[in-house]
Structures are given as C-alpha cells and as structure tokens.
C-alpha cells in the first residue's frame, strides 16, 4: 500500500494507510521488546540528511534502520556536505539517490521536502521542512495517543505555544481533525496557527477554538500538546525573549487541569514544561520520543516494500 511512496505531509494518508502504519509499528515494537533480530531491510541502505540540528528524529530514524538490519549513511551537519560549497538541493538529492534505497531529510527551508521528492527516484521521507510539516512526528504522536488513551477519537486536545512556526502542530492538527477531536489553539497573538491552516482545517470539519486562556482549555482537555517557542525561527532576538515564557506547564497548573490529562511534547523542551511535572503519571513526552523508533521502523519498511 505504501511501497515506493514518499512521506511528505499528514494530509496524504488514508485511514487504511494509517491503520497499516500503526499496526506495523505495534508489531515491530513487540518484536524489539521480545529481543528479536529483525531482518526486513537487510541489504538496504538508508540515507539520513539533516541540514538542521536534530537529536531525537535523526537518532530514532538511524536506530530504526539499524533495528531493521539496514545500513545507514548520513549527513549530520550542512557544513560537512557540498551544500556548504553552494551545491543545489536538487543536485544533492540526485546524487544521494544513487547511493541509497530510502532518503530521509530535514531541511530549514519550507517546501524543501517537495523539491527532494521531485528529484529522488527512491522513496523520500520528510523529517521536517522549515516551519512546514513534520509528518513522522505526527504519526508517532497519534501512535502515542492511542497507547496512552486507548483511542484516537473522542478527545479534546489543546495545542499550546508556538503554533505559527511549530511544524509538529501543523501536522498533528490534521490528524486530530481526521479523528474528529475538538481542538483548542492556545498561543500569543503573534504566534497563532497560520490562518491558511485554520481555514483548511475548518473546511475539513475541524472543531477549533482559538484562545490565549490556557487554564480554560486545560480544564476540559484530555491531552495537552506543548511546543517550545523556537529561537531559531526568529530574526529579531528581542521578539523571542519577549515570547519565550508565554506559557509554562507546571505541576500546580496540571493539578488544576482535567483529571487524567496527558502531556505530550515533541522535545526538546526549554522552560515550557517545568521538571516538577516529570513524575506526573500522565507526563508522556519521553515515552512519546521512544515511540518514534517503532513508527519510523514501520515507515522505512513499508515504503521500501519490506513491511
């Protein structure tokens, strides 16, 4: 169903494809935890091209490839590639496409994923393109929600923080709409969800309420998805300093929220979730990060026809 396909955005998936990805991830998770050696991608090569800093996404993709018995070639810093010499992205992709069976890329430019996919004959996976989308993060987010809450629908979800530049919430909001969840968008005025996304979501039937009142949203939410204000997206440092502490999730706030609320965060965090929340039972952000391995195993295997 996904063999040979590119993974570019969340809007591309059918419910059947999502079920396949979730079930494949669950199967791989069980095999890994049972200590099995998995050889689905033995003899295959995965290229990971990260032209923007990353810890979790890059390492989880490379762990996923290794768990599947694939080999990994990588660029972990734009300065160490020919991009630093002025090579175009299209030429870089055409070159790497001759070396690998699957290409995974993170790039700081919006639209870079489409350029890469257009120039690759092998399957391409978008690991984040600027402030655009991050579909594999959204997939691991819904995998986590299913594990933590027992269902993907019937939830009230608050997305809080940097909704303007936060590609993770751009992607996740489409899945939350697909599964019929109500959403609160909580942010400062200057970091609101881009209007084109909000309009598109509402056209798809999304139930959205935009507010700056976090306490109001948490009182009725089953899940809060926290994002950091991203220093690297601001041209003016003083604007970042003004906005970085807009919303902080601490234990006192969680104790006043809806009972059993689950806390998610794509990480890394800076100061937007206090460490006094870490021992709260519903603090799922590190479990969420670990789930990325199984989702990315599923994607690598499925697009290469080895699922």
TrEMBL record:
Keywords noted in UniProt: Pyrimidine biosynthesis, Transferase
InterPro entries for this protein: Asp/Orn_carbamoyltranf_P-bd, Asp/Orn_carbamoylTrfase, Asp/Orn_carbamoylTrfase_sf, Asp_carbamoyltransf, Asp_carbamoyltransf_Asp/Orn-bd
Stretches assigned to the Aspartate/ornithine carbamoyltransferase Asp/Orn-binding domain: 154-302
Gene3D superfamilies, A to Z: Aspartate/ornithine carbamoyltransferase
Binding-site residues for L-aspartate, renumbered to this chain: 85, 167, 228
Catalytic reactions on record: carbamoyl phosphate + L-aspartate = N-carbamoyl-L-aspartate + phosphate + H(+)
Positions contributing to carbamoyl phosphate binding: 56-57, 106, 134, 137, 267-268
Description of how the protein assembles with itself and partners: Heterododecamer (2C3:3R2) of six catalytic PyrB chains organized as two trimers (C3), and six regulatory PyrI chains organized as three dimers (R2).
Domain Aspartate/ornithine carbamoyltransferase carbamoyl-P binding residue range list: 5-145
A Pfam family annotated for this UniProt entry: OTCace_N
Pathway: Pyrimidine metabolism; UMP biosynthesis via de novo pathway; (S)-dihydroorotate from bicarbonate: step 2/3
Name of protein: Aspartate carbamoyltransferase
PANTHER family from the UniProt entry: ASPARTATE CARBAMOYLTRANSFERASE, ORNITHINE CARBAMOYLTRANSFERASE, MITOCHONDRIAL
EC number, UniProt record: 2.1.3.2
NCBIfam families per UniProt: asp_carb_tr, PRK00856.1
Stated family: Belongs to the aspartate/ornithine carbamoyltransferase superfamily. ATCase family.
GO biological process: 'de novo' pyrimidine nucleobase biosynthetic process; 'de novo' UMP biosynthetic process; amino acid metabolic process
Known function: Catalyzes the condensation of carbamoyl phosphate and aspartate to form carbamoyl aspartate and inorganic phosphate, the committed step in the de novo pyrimidine nucleotide biosynthesis pathway.
A GO molecular function held by the record: aspartate carbamoyltransferase activity
């Amino acid at each position: 169903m996904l063999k040979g396909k590119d993974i570019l955005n969340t809007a591309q998936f059918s419910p059947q494809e999502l079920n396949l990805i979730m079930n494949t991830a669950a199967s791989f998770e069980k095999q890994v935890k049972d200590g099995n050696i998995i050889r689905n991608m033995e003899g295959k090569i995965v290229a990971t091209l990260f032209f923007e800093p990353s810890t979790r996404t890059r390492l989880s993709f490379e762990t996923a490839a290794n768990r599947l018995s694939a080999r990994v070639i990588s660029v972990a810093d734009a300065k160490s590639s020919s991009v630093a010499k002025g090579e175009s992205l299209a030429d870089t992709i055409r070159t790497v496409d001759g070396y690998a069976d699957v290409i995974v890329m993170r790039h700081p430019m919006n639209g870079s994923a489409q350029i890469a996919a257009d120039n690759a004959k092998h399957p391409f996976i978008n690991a984040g393109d600027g402030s655009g989308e991050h579909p594999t993060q959204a997939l691991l987010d819904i995998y986590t929600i299913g594990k933590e809450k027992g269902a993907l629908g019937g939830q009230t979800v608050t997305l809080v923080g940097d909704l303007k530049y936060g590609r993770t919430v751009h992607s996740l909001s489409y899945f939350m709409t697909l599964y019929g969840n109500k959403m609160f968008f909580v942010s400062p005025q200057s970091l609101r969800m881009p209007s084109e996304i909000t309009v598109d979501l509402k056209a798809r039937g999304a139930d959205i309420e935009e507010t700056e009142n976090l306490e109001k949203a948490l009182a009725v939410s089953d899940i809060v998805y926290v994002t950091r204000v991203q220093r690297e997206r601001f041209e003016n440092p003083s604007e970042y300093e003004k906005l970085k502490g807009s919303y902080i999730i601490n234990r006192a706030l969680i104790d006043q929220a809806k009972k059993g609320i689950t806390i998610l965060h794509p990480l890394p965090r800076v100061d937007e979730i206090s460490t006094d929340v870490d021992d709260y039972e519903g603090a799922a952000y590190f479990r969420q990060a670990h789930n990325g391995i199984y989702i990315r195993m599923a994607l690598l295997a499925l697009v290469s026809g080895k699922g």
